[in-house]
Write a sequence for this structure.
């Protein structure tokens, strides 16, 4: 075949695009600095002493935007875009433009006192951004840094797959190791191997340079040896497993998970356990919401109401300070009394699911979302109201919720390990329930409902009944979350059940992958584990006030680039990748025809 | 006694009368075609029978019970299934699942069975799957084998129509309502489907009402033809009677020019 390759010159670029992305980069960096992110996150060291989280929050910008500016989509049936110097040039220019804008920002911030409008833009920020070397030298440095990083972003297109993977994996590994510092230090401490952790991590936090080099080298080596993206490979392998093989795999994975769940809390410290307990709590809720949103397709924005109902029911049943009813039962998982508490919690949750669900269930889509949103707020405001204060304590809430008991062990928030174990058990139950229901007649009815409600009804699915069932099951799972939450915190206040909880649980489900159990697990690990919940800190506790900003940015990014979520369900995957699947199906049909002819 | 007997069925949307007192009946194992020009109210007629639209007036008596105004799922449970004029499958579910979900109203294991994986549950699941495969097998090999696990949207237009019929069969009805089953098919596919409709009656024992525009299909399958125009039944009888009926010709072709002048 005659292939004429016209080499494209180094300046044959979409300059408009480069300029645009360059400006975006500069504005993003200026924005991140002006909201105080750089300053605040500077305290968290990633690599000691050269890189802090604050600077990382800036430095990724030219890389990512340089990469984006020179990104060309490889289209089916067309020659793959040619990669070369032009990508480097494009990245460099993007970075330089970004740097220019950022430098302008620094200069303005230095010349004019903006603290009246932007309280975070002050001399401290300027000193930090100019590396204490004055505006002139600092600016020059930024131009160089930003240009080089932009070029690095462009370079990522040029590198052969294998090298690129090695580079990105090495960087990611260093970041990850720095991220999980508390947990790793905990583990090494309980294993009495502080020698290793002292060598990897510096005294004032972050990975040491030597440690970073070794970690990067290890990650690069392991990725050079492997073929293709390990995660993708694993997923395709898992998807093609049949019957027995998959069963065996699931069994092994389950066993590993159980062993980890039993052993981890013992060797982790209080802080990490607390964190894992929070992850589990949100995972429990996300699994419940996943039934409602992911399976049955009912957008419920008031999910926190059921969490609140579970927490308040537990508080009333167990606390001696409950204002009206004081049965003072003990939540003892091994006695009848404890089971009575749980049964009542489930019953109340189911009832509230029914009460909230019945009037709204006939609404669709946006209307349902708005009405459930309202209901969620109504429930919180009712708990807060003076009118119901004699029963629920108003703004003071209900305090003195005693510890739960399992045999000789007391379970409460001061011992996060115990909470974690309880959470794991309930998460296990929730996963089992979701998985069993999904692979049953009820799960199929939910799927049909999600696809086309009218047709589902016409095909004999009692849509109202099935929707209510989803609502109630979701409510019960959330109420378990509320029950554990009440025991963990020891008190319940209306302010713990704000709208933001509903939204964050929904974000977990969307980012993880709607309708996908592993997706929801990954979603809560990433979001709650790393970023933290509405009030609970994650591994990157420094994010604190910027948490919602990052949640938002992540959500937008996911919607644009990966709407099916981190670990999509099969059905979502089908829905959003019709074209590829169609092509695949066509080839398969051809092959079957060939087979038939022979 | 007729299997389905409809009297005085009326339905208006705002000022537009879609059905103006239609009487209709069908006996066990009959195939009746409903024809009429566009906008004659044929699809509304189906929608009222299947419960998607609640009639203003009139009785719909199926197996001796009035089903007018019942929930669509309840009507399906009682034994009336339908297909849609503009194919409406569950596109992201697999072909097998599309037929499996249709058996919802014929099965009953609930939450407990699913949670504890009871023997009843497992047997029922197996039966559902077997029956679905069996139904799909009725259409030859084009919906079977590797197709079972493919999402419904990969199917060609004709196959989607076939799958829709299969899904309706999954609800195990006595009466099947087919809304323009050959629309968009080529002549060969149309001829094949004509045979299939007869087979559905002869082998599977369904009673069938079919809305159809293709006159050859109407001629070949119908025991009786009902003609609707502007929501009113204007003729009824064998294909030959109806096709020579001056009112019907007028409804389709309009009044001859000299008379209208």
């Amino acid at each position: 075949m005659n292939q004429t390759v016209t080499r494209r010159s180094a300046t044959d670029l979409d300059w408009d695009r480069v300029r645009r992305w360059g400006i975006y980069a500069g504005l993003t960096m200026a924005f991140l600095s002006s909201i105080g992110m750089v300053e605040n996150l500077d305290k968290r060291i990633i690599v000691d002493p050269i890189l802090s989280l604050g600077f990382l929050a800036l430095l990724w910008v030219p890389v990512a935007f340089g990469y984006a500016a020179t990104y060309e989509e490889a289209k089916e049936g067309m020659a793959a875009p040619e990669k070369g110097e032009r990508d480097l040039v494009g990245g460099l220019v993007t970075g330089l433009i970004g740097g220019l804008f950022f430098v302008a920002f620094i200069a303005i911030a230095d010349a004019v006192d903006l603290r009246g409008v932007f309280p975070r833009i002050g001399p401290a920020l300027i000193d930090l951004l100019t590396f204490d070397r004055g505006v002139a030298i600092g600016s020059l440095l930024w131009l160089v840094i930003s240009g080089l990083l932009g070029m690095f972003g462009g370079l990522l297109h040029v590198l052969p797959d294998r090298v690129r993977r090695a580079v990105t994996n090495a960087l990611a590994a260093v970041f990850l190791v720095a991220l999980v510092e508390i947990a790793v230090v905990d583990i090494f401490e309980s294993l009495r191997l502080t020698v290793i952790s002292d060598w990897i991590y510096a005294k004032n936090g972050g990975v040491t340079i030597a440690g970073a080099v070794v970690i990067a080298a290890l990650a690069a080596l392991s990725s050079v040896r492997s073929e293709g993206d390990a995660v993708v490979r694993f997923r395709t392998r898992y998807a093609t497993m049949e019957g027995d093989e998959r069963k065996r795999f699931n069994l092994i994975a389950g066993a590993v998970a159980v062993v980890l769940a039993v052993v981890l809390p013992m060797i982790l410290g209080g802080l990490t356990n607390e964190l894992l307990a929070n992850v589990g709590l949100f995972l429990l809720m996300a699994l419940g919401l996943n039934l409602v949103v992911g399976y049955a397709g009912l957008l419920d924005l008031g999910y926190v109401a059921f969490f609140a109902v579970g927490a308040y029911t537990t508080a009333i049943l167990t606390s001696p300070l409950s204002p009206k009813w004081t049965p003072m039962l003990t939540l003892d998982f091994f006695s009848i009394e404890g089971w009575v508490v749980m049964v009542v919690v489930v019953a109340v949750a189911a009832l509230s699911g029914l009460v909230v669900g019945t009037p709204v269930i006939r609404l669709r889509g946006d209307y349902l979302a708005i009405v459930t949103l309202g209901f969620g707020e109504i429930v919180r405001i009712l708990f807060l109201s003076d009118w119901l204060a004699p029963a629920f304590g108003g703004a003071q809430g209900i305090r003195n919720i005693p510890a739960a008991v399992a045999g000789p062990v007391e379970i409460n928030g001061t011992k996060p390990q115990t909470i974690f174990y309880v959470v794991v058990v309930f998460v296990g139950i929730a996963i089992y329930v979701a998985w069993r229901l999904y692979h049953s007649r009820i799960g199929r009815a939910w799927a049909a409902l999600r696809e086309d409600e009218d047709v589902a009804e016409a095909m004999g699915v009692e849509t109202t009944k099935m929707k209510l069932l989803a609502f109630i099951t979701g409510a019960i799972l959330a109420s378990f979350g509320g029950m554990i939450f009440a025991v963990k915190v020891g008190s319940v206040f209306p302010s713990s059940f704000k709208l933001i909880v509903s939204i964050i649980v929904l974000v977990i489900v969307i980012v993880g992958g709607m309708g996908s159990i592993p997706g929801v697990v990954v979603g809560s690990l990433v979001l709650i584990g790393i970023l933290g919940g509405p009030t609970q800190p994650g591994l990157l506790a420094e994010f604190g006030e910027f948490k919602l900003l990052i949640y938002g940015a992540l959500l937008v990014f996911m919607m644009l680039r990966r709407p099916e979520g981190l670990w999509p369900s099969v059905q979502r995957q089908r829905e959003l990748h019709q074209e590829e699947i169609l092509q695949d199906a066509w080839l398969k049909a051809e092959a079957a025809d060939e087979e038939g002819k022979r | 006694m007729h299997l389905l007997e409809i009297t005085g069925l009326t339905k208006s949307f705002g000022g537009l009368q879609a059905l103006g007192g239609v009487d209709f009946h069908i006996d066990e194992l009959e195939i009746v075609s409903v024809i009429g020009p566009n906008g004659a109210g044929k699809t509304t007629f189906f929608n009222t029978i299947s419960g998607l639209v609640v009639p203003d007036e009139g009785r719909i008596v199926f197996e001796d019970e009035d089903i007018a105004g019942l929930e669509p799922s309840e009507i399906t449970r009682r034994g009336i299934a339908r297909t849609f004029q503009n194919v409406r499958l569950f596109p992201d579910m697999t072909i097998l699942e599309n037929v499996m979900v249709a058996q919802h109203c014929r099965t009953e294991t609930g939450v407990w069975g699913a949670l504890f994986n009871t023997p009843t549950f497992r047997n029922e699941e197996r039966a559902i799957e077997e029956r679905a495969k069996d139904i799909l097998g009725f259409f030859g090999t084009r919906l079977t084998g590797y197709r079972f696990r493919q999402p419904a949207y990969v199917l060609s237009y004709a196959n989607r129509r076939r799958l829709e019929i299969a899904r309706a069969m999954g609800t195990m009805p006595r009466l099947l309502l087919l809304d323009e089953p050959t629309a968009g098919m080529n002549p060969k596919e149309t001829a094949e489907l004509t045979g299939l409709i007869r087979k559905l009656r002869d082998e599977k024992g369904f009673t069938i009402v079919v809305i159809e525009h293709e006159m050859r299909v109407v001629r070949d399958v119908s025991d009786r033809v009902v003609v609707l125009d502007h929501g009113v039944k204007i003729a009824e009888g064998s294909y030959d009677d109806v096709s020579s009926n001056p009112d019907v010709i007028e409804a389709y072709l309009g009044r001859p020019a000299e008379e209208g002048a």
Notes: DSSP finds 26 helices and five strands in chain A. Residues 449 and 456 of chain A are 6 Å apart (CA to CA). The first helix of chain A runs from residue 15 to 34.
